[in-house]
Design a protein that fits this description.
Blueprint lengths: L14 H6 L4 H18 L3 E4 L3 E4 L2 E4 L6 E4 L2 E5 L4 E5 L17 E3 L2 E4 L7 H25 L6
Antiparallel strand pairs: 1-2, 2-5, 3-4, 5-6, 6-8, 7-8
Length: about 150
């Protein structure tokens, strides 16, 4: 199947400038805490994807459900107005048993929504992000074997 053309792409924009522009002081502090946590977990430098997502690493995905392909970040977050959105690409946060001790959150497809970091247990969140990264990297290696080389 053809590669899906995504609107959200990796940019060269400054992550620091983006985070410094967050008006709410607490949200900005939480965003920097997430930034440092995910940098330690991934050992990767963050990139701004689109205008509002801080992504770490990248990989070529193939959707098991639709067969669509595209390029995306391994994990990331976005300090949205209503909450902090943490992205995990390994098939859903609810599969991790640790989520029961995470704290206050809501879930979306591949997204973990947290109003403020004070609402969650940070070591638990760190562990879940690390698991998601490990699984995503493993899936990326499988996908790389399935992907056909692009014709010049």
């Amino acid at each position: 199947m053809a590669t899906a053309e995504l609107k959200t792409k990796k940019t060269d924009a400054s992550v620091t400038k983006f985070l410094d522009g967050i008006a709410d002081e607490k949200k900005r502090a939480d965003a920097y805490t997430l930034l440092e946590m995910i940098k330690k977990v991934t050992k990767l430098e963050p990139k701004l994807w689109g205008g509002t997502i801080v992504g770490f690493g990248d990989y070529h995905y193939i959707s098991e459900r639709t067969g669509r392909e595209g390029d995306w970040f391994i994990t990331g977050f976005s300090p949205r107005k209503a909450n902090l959105t943490v992205y995990g690409m390994s098939g859903g946060w609810e599969k991790y048993p640790e989520i029961k001790s995470l704290g206050k959150y809501t879930l979306g497809v591949g997204c973990l929504y947290i109003k403020k970091l004070d609402d969650v247990d940070l070591p638990t969140l760190r562990k879940m992000i690390a698991q998601s990264v490990k699984e995503t990297k493993k899936q990326a290696a499988v996908n790389a074997k399935k992907t056909k080389p692009k014709k010049a």
